[in-house]
């Protein structure tokens, strides 16, 4: 697709003092709650873009051409992260020929990316 929908909240403060007084933790918490509600209700399965919410708090001092902003992408930190299996060394799973192919492929990929 040629576009990606990312629903978000834009708050533009009228003064620098208003900008500084916004409770950023509360904004983040309310947005995270909306994401969690969408997950629990199943709406995120129907509309995955609901997981891409963002916050943007701004103030523009047009007289002095100074711009202030606070951008946030709420995300959940799962601790400890769920694992399908215990971590295993690649050398315990792949043959030496497969490891060589992997190294060569990675080297080619990084060379192509840097040129």
From TrEMBL:
<protein>
    <recommendedName>
        <fullName>Ubiquitin-like modifier-activating enzyme Atg7 N-terminal domain-containing protein</fullName>
    </recommendedName>
</protein>
<dbReference type="InterPro" id="IPR032197">
    <property type="entry name" value="Atg7_N"/>
</dbReference>
<dbReference type="InterPro" id="IPR042522">
    <property type="entry name" value="Atg7_N_1"/>
</dbReference>
<dbReference type="Pfam" id="PF16420">
    <property type="entry name" value="ATG7_N"/>
</dbReference>
<feature type="domain" description="Ubiquitin-like modifier-activating enzyme Atg7 N-terminal">
    <location>
        <begin position="4"/>
        <end position="111"/>
    </location>
</feature>
């Amino acid at each position: 697709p040629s576009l990606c929908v990312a629903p978000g909240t834009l708050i533009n403060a009228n003064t620098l003092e208003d900008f500084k007084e916004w409770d950023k933790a509360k904004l983040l918490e309310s947005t995270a709650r909306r994401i969690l509600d969408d997950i629990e209700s199943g709406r995120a399965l129907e509309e995955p873009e609901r997981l891409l919410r963002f916050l943007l708090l701004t103030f523009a001092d047009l007289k002095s051409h100074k711009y202030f902003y606070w951008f946030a992408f709420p995300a959940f930190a799962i601790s400890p992260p769920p694992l399908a299996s215990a971590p295993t060394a690649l050398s315990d799973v792949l043959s030496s020929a497969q490891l060589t192919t992997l190294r060569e492929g990675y080297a080619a990929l990084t060379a192509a990316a840097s040129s």
